[in-house]
Amino acid sequence: MNNVVISGSKAGESEQHTPVEAPNDLRSVATARILLALGEGEFEGGVNEKSIYLDGTPLMSQNGTINFPGVKWDFRSGTVDQQYIQGFPAVESETAIGVELKSDAPWTRSFNDGQISAVIIRFRWPSLQEQKDNGDVVGYSIDYRVEVSTDGGPYIVASQQGVTGKTTSNYERSVRINLPSGNGWVVKVTRLTPNMNNNRIADLMYIGAVTEVIDRKMRYPNTALLGIQFDASQFSNIPTISVLAKMRKIRVPDNYDPVTRTYSGIWSGGFKIAYSNNPAWVTYDIIIENRFSVGDKVGPQFVDKYELYKIAQYCDQQVPDGKGGTEHRYECNIYIATAAEAWQVLRDIASIYRGMIYWMQSQMTVRADMPRDTDYIFTNANVIDGTFTYSGSDERVKYTRALVSYDNPDNNFESDVTTTYDNALQRRYGDNVVELSAFGCTRESEAQRRGKWAIYTNNNDRTVAFKTGMEGEIPMIGHIVAVADDLISGVRIGGRISNVSADGKTITLDREVAAAKAGDRLLVNLPSGKAETRTVETVTGRDIKVSSVYSESPAKFLQWTLESDDITHQLFQIVSVKKADTDSIEYEFAGVSYNPSKFDFIDTGARIEDRPVSQIPVGGMEAPEEVLISQSVYVEQTMAITTMTIGWSAVKNSVAYEVEWRKDYGEWVKMPRTGQLSVDIKGVYTGQYLARVRAVSSAGVASIAKPSMLTDIVGKVGEPPSLAIFRTSSKAFSIYLDWSFGPNSEDALYTEIEYATNAQGTNPSFLGSYAYPTSDHLMMGLAAGVEFWFRARIRDRTGNVGAWTDWTYGVSSVDAEELLSYLEGQIGSGELAPGLLEEITNDVAAGIGDEIIGDVEDSILGFLTGDDENAPQDMLWYAGDDGTQESFVGNVTITSAYNDQDYSKAKQIFLLAGRVEDNKALISRVDAISVSRDEALAQSLSLISVEVGENTAKITSEQTARVTADEALAQDIQALAVTVGENTAAIATEQTVRADADTALAELVQTVSAQIGDIEAVVQQTSEAVVDLDGSIKANWQVKTEVNADGRVVQAGVGLGASIGADGTTRSEFLVMADTIGFLNSIDGQIHTPFVFDTVNDTAFLNSAIIGDATISYAKIANDLQSTNYQAGLVGWKLDKNGVFENNGSDSSGRMVQSNNRIDVYDASGALRVRIGKLI
Asked: What's this model's pTM, rounded to 2 decimal places?
């Protein structure tokens, strides 16, 4: 084991060192100079040390204490001619960086704005110190360099500095780097002193921010400015700066005092400039301002300023503030700092006064939910079908509590939340919360009013929808309309005016209102389109006299509604108006429930008064207590007519009654619903009658039926008489029926007709009922020779039926002349036959080439010949001029374009051409497009043309596509044409497709033609398909040939067509146009024609025919007429043209031969048994 010896000696004593920390000797030399654009001017002002805040603290407290010494500031209100703020000779834009600068990683940044003059780099050191080995804390030094590269050039040192000293808190300094001339720069900052990276040296260095500088004294007209300057040592970062100021002056009425918020006298319609936070005038000013809003599109003449005047007065009215005082109802205290859609900004501002803004009838209109008189009346009489449709929201979306956020000035305008609720609704629906943001609101009391309004409107959201005619042009969105709906009220409280007295005070209604009395209020629509109310003075039947005249005299047929303390109409605010999607004049309206008493409830908490809009009782309807049947007799044109009257007692709250009756226990006859207490049935027959009546409420609820006693009525005896005459006559493809009525048929209701296929009337079919006194009918759509048997009877107005006539025979016509005449009329009335008969037009091929040549010749000919001094030489090649004859060859392309706000067009012309004397060769193409607000068009024309003297050959093409708001069209035309002297030949094809709102069409036309002088031959084929919105459809195809010589035109053609008319009638046709129509066959090389039509002589030639069923009006037999089984002397029959008739029967039991003067009868063995007539 080794021994380790440790030895040493004691040193002399020394004094212990106490570490020393050097004082901080670095202070920030950065000065913050900030120029703020507060907003669009001119501001009212009111800016001082107490209204400027740094990080939420004012420069001066309310007691006069300075919170930030050494701060300098200046304010400009934003006038047009304001001066620049001294101390801000440049435009500076600072960007925060916050990046650590390390010795091994230089910091670089590019600047590409060619307007900047310099950049300012702000450096920051969180702390700077060094701890020595003996524990002393002293300062430290860091060197750094700034270099600039201009337009991609080398870096050049712009500044090299260092910092030496000690600090334990944030230290900043700035360096300005002037930039040389150029368009782009790269600034590089390099830390020269290495990072020590230990805990004894604090040497972190940061790039705090970079500022771009434009050396220019800017006035910024029309912009409110705040310039502020302070020592950066007071803040660790740039503080948030806020200003409490009266902002932009706006347009207000010239009779308005914006300080007291009062109006004096009658407004002339003029404006002045003043500060106001009335949201209605803020709305007006923003709409018409053309610097930053839509004023360049919407001038003052398009704004309903008088409606805004009413809204502004409503905003300025005093309401309780909830703290024992009063305040203005609405204020607009909002700072719009970012761009937004104009409509959204205007809607947000309108929401302050519970408004809506919209464009209608060429005017920007603003409406607010505030007290308003009734603008118009709608009753069951002036809405389509007399129908109103009601709806409401589900109880699950009923709000009972509102949380409303607003900008609280006591909390530096930070958002606070206030709450409001409705106890009754919470007990009913529970706690359903809605969260709202009160735009522009800085008062808690106003925020609560907005919350109460939201809860009320959400829970009273019953809506109505209806349609009307031309009256839909009158009410606008936001208008209040009175709805007098009998279905809801349970009584009739509305209708139309029947008459107006000369003095305009007595109005005659179209019905009597039983409950009308003096003191009620009569509301009527006036001819100008507004509604007015007057107090009722007296009631005499349907005549209502009012206490004072209306502002204009009411007119007949306009609407009225009567309201009292017991019953009144409903009120709705219109929220939607639109044109119905129909061809008729029809408008669709939607409105939401409106109660005038809600405004006092929202503003002051007053009790809401529900309007008595219905008298419908809860539960079912009672039946009439009594139903009676009676009879009366009166004389009409010497005839005694018996009338049965069914009467009943009135039922409370009923609006109509349903009545039924029957005779002798027959079927019940239902009468139309009535509002009277009796009905009459005229011309009844003797018998026992029973009636029953139901009462119906306005909700459509019917009571049980109350029956009458079985009552004997002595009236007409028997049944309705039979028809005096009932007959038929034959018509082309139809049967005509006519009849006449006998005595005592005056109370006939209609004539019933049945038809059958045999004389016994087995399984008859119902033909129809024909209202009295109709006395004929045409049964159409039959084939020729169709047979039916018909019968008819009378049914009278009380439901009694008479006896049937006998079966009458009828047959559709078999007259060939009548049928052919009818068919000719039918064929001629269609489109296929006229198309075959008209002469062929042959001008397609001729037009296209001429159009192209005319389009390009003027534009290009100068270029090709070298006559144009501005000819594009780099696009042409010249063969030159030989001095006596002109020749050239070359090509050129010309492009043109035009564009403005409403119309754009472009065209390109290409030409390749050559010419020697009069011989020419040309290839050309013209492409053009044009676009406007109403139409887009594209067209392409091309031509290949050669000419030698007067001989030409052309190939042309034209394509066109055009679309408008109502129509789309595409067309393609191709043509080949040659000409030698007077001889021409051409082939043309034209294709067209077109569609619009009503029709879709496709058409193809192909034409082949040849011509020598005036002699021409043409072949044309046409295909067409058309579908129309009215339901008509057609498809046609035809081929025509035509020759024309010496003025004589000869045509032949064939056409196929199928169509369905708008009325549902169908038609298909196969037409042939020719002098001779034949069917050919070749037998042993010879033409065989078994079937030929000679249309010139109206003759058909048939070599052989088998006919199943023939109807012949007149027949001529050229030789013999015989049966198919005829064998002479054995079977069958034969009639020869000499008048000999041989009848052999079918069983060889004998035969008979008949001539013009003798009849011979032979037995089976051939022996003559009987001879009649000439015996020898």
From this structure: 0.53
